[in-house]
């Protein structure tokens, strides 16, 4: 969940994507290819950068 509680980021292990959903409408906003198995999505303190480590051995930073 983003810091403003407006978007939900969901990592899908089987597709290697991160799905961004609108919290109010529950609609899909964006699909982010993580090219791995995204796990444990977190955000920086201001909430503008998603930090997405994955099981393939690297970390994605999404702004």
Report on the structure:
By secondary structure, the chain is an all-beta fold. A hairpin with a 6-residue loop joins strand 4 and strand 5. It has strands at residues 7-12, 17-22, 28-33, 42-43, 50-53, 59-62. The chain is globular. It is 0% helix and 44% strand. It has no helices and six strands. It has one domain.
Count the E strands: 6
Shape descriptor reads globular
The share of residues in helices is under 10%
Structural domain count: 1
* Termini separation: 14 Å
The helix-strand sequence is EEEEEE
Output the strand order for the largest sheet.
1-2-3
State the helix count.
0
CA gyration radius, whole angstroms = 11 Å
Low-confidence stretches: none
Strand content: 35-45%
Structural class: mainly beta
Q: Let me know the average pLDDT.
A: 91
The multimeric state of the shown protein is: single chain
Sheet of most strands: 3 strands, antiparallel
List the helices and strands and how they pair.
Elements: E1 7-12, E2 17-22, E3 28-33, E4 42-43, E5 50-53, E6 59-62
Antiparallel strand pairs: 1-2, 2-3, 4-5, 5-6
